[in-house]
Amino acid sequence: MKKLLEICCYSAESAILAQKNGADRVELCDNFLEGGTTPSAGTIKYVREKIKIGLHPIIRPRGGDFCYNEYEFEVIIRDIRKARDMGADGIVTGILKPNGTYDLPRMEKVIKTAYPLRVTSHRAFDMCNDPHKAIRELIDIGVERILTSGQQNTAIEGIELLHELQEKFGSEIIIMPGSGVTAENIANLVSGTGCTEFHASAKTFVQGKMQYFNKNLTMGNVIKDYNEFSYVSVDQRQIAEMRRVLSEK
Predict the structure, then answer these.
(1) What residue spans define the domains of the chain?
(2) What is the C-alpha separation between 200 and 233, in angstroms, rounded?
(3) Closest by CA position to 7, among listed 203, 215, 244
(4) Which residue has the higher pLDDT, 214 or 73?
(5) Sign of the dihedral defined by the CA atoms of residues 217, 219, 225, 228, in that order
(6) Average pLDDT of span 8-27
(7) What are the residues whose beta carbons fall under 8 Å from the beta carbon of 99, sequence distance 6 or more?
(8) CA 60 → CA 10, 57, 64, 77, 162, distances in Å?
(9) What is the CB-side half-sphere exposure of residue 96 using CA atoms within 13 A?
(10) Within 10 A of 2 (CB to CB), how many other CB atoms are there?
(11) pLDDT digits 0-9 by tens, 39-49
């Protein structure tokens, strides 16, 4: 069975480069410093025009936790409609209750709103208090795929749970390992989990073109030693190598 490679992209350029180097699908995001938030309508539309591979925008109105108030939930629903209308193939989202369970009524509304788009639950799953109960609930409401690190910082660290979930539920829902996936460890994840889809960011930083820097201020960043004059892109070599490894498995 073919192994699929999804690349998390934070710009139109990154999505184009991901396709060029063998990605099967793009998870399109904005704002990598907060773990990915909803990309702009203009970005979704332009990327759809430029790539033929799968396009799944993340629908996440802000950083932080995955418990949303009524205003944020309304934004989620409107963003799903916009992504659907602009030609996305699916959406990536997740909504939890404060107790660490999925907010199932809201998730069901998400699935109904997104139809016929496919719905992936992002790593909100990794914040759930009972992954086995959560995955059964997601299967029952029609979620197609779960992006997960096996409830650890990285997929390699969570490989035991990933394998267990794949063994128990892989015939009913797609388990897609993600977080810390690289060309150097993806072969181990294939053999250690039995999964067929993998998610990676292949993240690299590009120095911007600015030559003048006003060192008396920052543009709101509070992360120590972060270079505000660089931006995140994708490492083409990493993507191409991951594609090569997966093609041989």
Answers:
(1) 2-246
(2) 12
(3) 203
(4) 73
(5) negative
(6) 98
(7) 129
(8) 14, 9, 10, 10, 24
(9) 20
(10) 10
(11) 999 999 999 99
Q: Which amino acid is at 8?
A: C
- C-alpha to C-alpha distance for 10 and 27, rounded to whole angstroms: 9
Lookup: tokens for 56: 């799944």
Residues comprising the chain, all counted: 249
Q: Is the pLDDT of residue 98 over 90?
A: yes
Average pLDDT, the chain: 95
Nearest to 208 by CA among 20, 11, 2, 1: 11
pTM for this structure?
0.93
Name the CATH code of domain 2-246 (choices 3.20.20.70, 3.40.50.720, 3.20.20.380, 3.40.50.300). 3.20.20.380
CA distances from 53 to 40, 128, 237 (A): 19, 31, 19
State the Cα–Cα distance between residues 173 and 166, nearest whole angstrom: 9
Does position 221 have pLDDT exceeding 70, yes or no? no
How many CB atoms are closer than 10 A to CB 158? 24
